[in-house]
Amino acid sequence: MPYSAPEAYYFSPTSHVPNSPLLVLIYRSALPQPTTEASSRAHLEQHDWLWGGTFKAVTSHHFHSVTHECYGVLKGSSRLWLGRGPLDDEEGGKKVDVGVGDVVVLPVSSFVVIMAAN
């Protein structure tokens, strides 16, 4: 499956969010079609990602201090706000929309909130 270059975003640390010196990557339409849990799992595991489970969208700010994360969108769409936390002012970060087949790679300490999920 040919890939196009991922969207890449860098976020500086804020007063409240460490953010990673590594890039957040978004691969558009990267999962096999039709996008199922089984085909997505097999595809991501081929690229050395460990399967952590299948979850519904959780609309809360979070980051992981000791691990990278890889999210695949299996159904619907979401708007993510990357790189800023709930205590940061309204400036900073980036809002991005993701949909079925997209994959988001969040390096350790990158902050994300799912603002809306359909």
- Strand proportion: 25-35%
Quaternary form: single chain
Count helical runs. 1
Identify low-pLDDT runs.
Answer: none
* CATH topology call: Jelly Rolls
- What's the total number of strands? 7
State the separation between the terminal residues, measured CA to CA: 27 Å
Query: What general form does the structure show?
Result: globular
Q: Give the rounded overall mean pLDDT.
A: 87
Q: Can you summarize the main beta sheet? A: 4 strands, antiparallel
What's the helix and strand layout?
Blueprint: E1 7-9, E2 24-27, H1 37-46, E3 69-72, E4 77-82, E5 94-99, E6 103-106, E7 112-117
Antiparallel strand pairs: 1-2, 2-6, 3-6, 4-5, 4-7
General description of the model:
- By secondary structure, the chain is mainly beta.
- The chain has a single domain, classed as Sandwich (Jelly Rolls), CATH 2.60.120.
- The protein has one helix and seven strands.
- The mean pLDDT is 87.
- It starts with 6 loop residues before the first strand and ends with a strand.
- The strands form two sheets. A four-stranded antiparallel beta sheet has the order 1-2-6-3, with no helix packed on it. A three-stranded antiparallel beta sheet has the order 5-4-7, with no helix packed on it.
- 22% of the residues are buried.
List key phrases describing it:
118 residues, mainly beta, Jelly Rolls, four-stranded antiparallel β-sheet, three-stranded antiparallel β-sheet, 1 helix, 7 strands
